[in-house]
From TrEMBL:
Coiled-coil stretches: none
High-level lineage: Eukaryota, Metazoa, Chordata, Craniata, Vertebrata
Residue intervals passing through the bilayer: 6-24, 72-95, 132-149, 161-180, 200-222, 500-524
Enzyme Commission number: 3.4.24.85
Membrane topology: Multi-pass membrane protein
Record-given protein name: Membrane-bound transcription factor site-2 protease
Keyword check for Transmembrane: yes
Occurrences of domain Peptidase M50 (ranges): 134-507
UniProt keywords, alphabetically: Membrane, Transmembrane, Transmembrane helix
Biological-process GO terms, alphabetical: membrane protein intracellular domain proteolysis; regulation of response to endoplasmic reticulum stress
Main subcellular localisation: membrane
A Gene Ontology cellular-component term: endomembrane system
């Protein structure tokens, strides 16, 4: 659901603007001066919509339209080809997205299925409030570049630009250009197509530029930031499993999760996924250090607390492991032989030979930090025998089915020990691939550049797709009309028939887009 506080804030803001506008327009003494002030600054106000228009950028557009005419001709012809292809591709993509949405609506688990390429974005719902600045700036930039393409293409085709402007609708910013309609109707359909396709073409180019910048970012920041040395912690969620004296801190560099090396954020994510979907790792410990808590003793029912980060190493040394009356069976069938709320001890299981043919699983409660510090990981006793000169055995933490024990390496600090569901550790910290080479450099600069580029790629690409759809009031409407005039004029002689064909195509495209938006909005806000 949409957060009530956000909805109240937006509604209160627009109500205040609309009330002030109504009072000033109804005032006998201030009405004329107020309307003159709005007109002189190109401002227009209406419910949930504010618009600003100016001619101050017209000279800049004209200058850009005169740069290398031959190169611009090739540039906008490329945009024409892309626009036609994008119009067809956007319809296919919307049909595919609609199928995915309907499939998710009819299943009990909406997370099952392929991720959608296009999603409705609602600030505060599926867009974190901490990311709003990135979203709105990237959206505005994408809109400005889109309209810049229209303006330069129009001036190159001798169509006058009346002005450029920006607007805010509810909370979404945007931009527009005002073209002289009479000039636009006098030029050929091919010229019109170059103008109408220029917007989505420039969005596509901006998307590619942002992708290239994102790909080259490690090289561009190489003199100031190093990569490949680990994942740098930039934020730790308070009271999470990664927080605390023996947890992770901002500025720590994570280099490993158990025996899985971490060279960057991608490795961090893949290692956690691997650990979550593979059996629990074991550890090689000397046989002499084990004293069992007999599994065939009294059995009770306990639930281990999830999400612990073991921060202390108090308790008996390895050679003096405390014993218990019995191992307790949890509700999921796994065994526990330690106190339910212990933050220092953990129940380990191992296989003990009882003669040549008999092998029995036993359990021992051990001080976890001392037990796993400096030990080799294993899966069977043979792994320990191959790398140890003393009699060693492979012990495995006895945990609930989806719970894992993970050693997080972040030198020069001691290991952070985590017990819980691996995705919880992923959500507890924010990391980056970029490690500052100098102390005065800010940790968040690469994060800001990465995040902003990702938003530009996403939003500029989305604008290119949505505006290409043959839909009323979008660029796709004018692109389709110009394309039909350029291709069907010699086949369908009657202009009214061509317009009727265009109308039904636009109606179908509008219905397709409306269905995607309506169902996508319902999926985001109601589920």
């Amino acid at each position: 659901m949409i957060p009530v506080s956000l909805l109240v804030f937006v509604m209160a803001g627009w109500c205040a603007v609309y009330l002030a506008d109504t009072l000033l327009r109804s005032s006998v003494t201030h009405r004329i001066s107020y309307e003159s002030w709005l007109a002189s600054r190109g401002l227009m106000l209406s419910p949930f919509h504010v618009r600003w228009q100016t001619t101050m950028f017209n000279r800049l557009f004209a200058y850009c339209a005169r740069i290398n005419p031959r190169a611009l001709y090739m540039w906008f012809n490329s945009g024409l080809v892309f626009g036609i292809a994008a119009m067809l591709g956007s319809v296919v993509l919307l049909i595919r997205t609609l199928q995915q949405t309907i499939a998710q609506m009819t299943t009990d688990n909406p997370r099952i299925g392929d991720p959608q390429t296009l999603q409705v974005v609602v600030p505060g719902v599926n867009l974190p409030t901490s990311q709003l600045a990135y979203f709105f700036i990237a959206l505005l930039l994408s809109g400005v570049i889109h309209e810049l393409g229209h303006a330069v293409a129009a001036l190159r085709e001798q169509v006058r630009v009346n002005g450029f402007g920006m607007f805010v609708f509810v909370v979404y910013p945007g931009a527009f250009v005002d073209l002289f309609t009479t000039h636009l109707n006098l030029i050929s359909p091919a010229q019109q197509l170059r103008i109408f396709c220029a917007g989505v073409w420039h969005n596509f180019v901006l998307c590619l530029a942002a992708l290239a910048f994102l790909f080259l970012l490690p090289l561009l920041l190489f003199p100031m930031y190093a990569t490949g040395a680990g994942a740098l912690v930039t934020e730790v969620v308070q009271s999470s499993a990664a927080d605390g004296p023996r947890g992770l801190s901002v500025g720590d560099i994570v280099t490993g999760l158990e025996d899985c090396p971490v060279r960057g954020v991608e490795d961090w994510t893949s290692c956690l996924s691997h650990l979550a979907h593979t059996p629990q790792t074991g550890y090689c410990v000397p046989v002499a250090s084990l004293q069992p808590s007999w599994a065939h003793g009294r059995v009770g029912h306990l639930n281990i607390k999830r999400g612990h980060s073991y921060r202390a190493a108090t308790g008996a040394p390895i050679g003096q492991v405390s014993t218990h009356v019995g191992a307790f069976k949890r509700l999921d069938g796994t065994m526990d032989c330690c106190s339910n709320n212990s933050l220092t001890d953990l129940c380990f299981s191992y296989i003990k030979s009882q003669g040549r043919s008999s092998r029995e699983r036993e359990y021992a409660c051990m001080p976890v930090r001392k037990m796993v510090t400096g030990t080799r990981v294993c899966h069977t006793d043979d792994d320990c025998a191959a790398h140890s000169h003393t009699a060693s055995i492979c012990v495995t933490p006895s945990l609930e089915n989806q719970t894992r024990f993970i050693r997080v390496t972040h030198p020069p600090n001691t290991h952070m020990l985590f017990v819980g569901y691996p995705p919880h550790l992923q959500y507890a910290v924010s990391l980056t691939n970029f490690v500052p080479r100098f102390g005065f450099l800010h940790l968040d600069l690469p994060v800001f550049l990465e995040t902003f580029c990702k938003y530009v790629v996403s939003l500029s690409g989305a604008l290119a797709v949505v505006n290409s759809v043959p839909c009323f009031a979008l660029d796709g409407q004018w692109m389709l009309n110009a394309l039909l005039e350029a291709t069907l004029a010699s086949v369908v002689i009657d202009r009214q028939k061509r317009e009727l064909i265009g109308f039904f195509l636009l109606l179908a495209g509008s219905a397709l887009l409306a269905a995607n938006v309506a169902l996508g909005l319902w999926m985001v806000t109601a589920r």
